[in-house]
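User: My collaborator sent over this chain with a note saying "see what the structure looks like." That's all I know about it. Can you take a look?
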Amino acid sequence: MLAHGFGGSARNFRPQARALAPRYRVARFDARGHARSPAPIEADAYTPDVFAADLGRILDRIGIERAVVGGLSMGAGTALRFALDRPERVAGLVLAAFPPGAGAEGGFASVAPRFAEAIERDGLDAAGARFVWGPSSGLDPEAARLVRQGFLEHPPHGLALTLRGVIAAQPTVAALRPRLATLRLPTLVVVGGEDRMALAPSRDLAGAIPGARLVVIDNAGHVVNLAQPAAFNAALEQFLDDGGA
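Assistant: Without extra context I'll predict from the sequence alone. Here is the result:
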């Protein structure tokens, strides 16, 4: 079960689904407020607990009691919360590009409220250009075009509510450390070597979970599974072959 990051969709894990399909059943889904999933208008429909419960409901819907669960960035936060709340349903964890969390300097959570306000005030296109794919993003023109194309398929209110209720509420690794020490699950932490936002918290996360395996993939930024799919898939398949499943 793979959960995408903020502003993404189930399509973001298509390379992994294709690579694993011959040997594993792979489930993906659009988070609430994103792409083809419902986007409630109530603010209390967007919390970390609700997003983790959604993951459990998807497992129920497809008839799977226990699975390897994982995700990227926001999706990694969702997968980890689900594992902490329902460890009996988790056979292993795959946590990619783990976000710094609320209060961490330089993290996306710190700009989430301003991003949400900009979406409501200026519209999704203008807000996205300011916070995601504009000149300061470091994306090349083609990458910026693809990111913009993906962002604009989401309902603006769904993204704004996700920013306020989920992204801005993501706890730091330090805040989670006491609970992380209790995890007894095979865990793979993956991060891009050029991911300035997630590299440090991903390393901290791997150190806080007993027995966790850390893989740093060269020449990859935040969306590590799409930047270097072959290397990401190799790490994922090795983890599953070694007992992550």
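A starting point for your reply to your collaborator: The chain has a mean pLDDT of 94.
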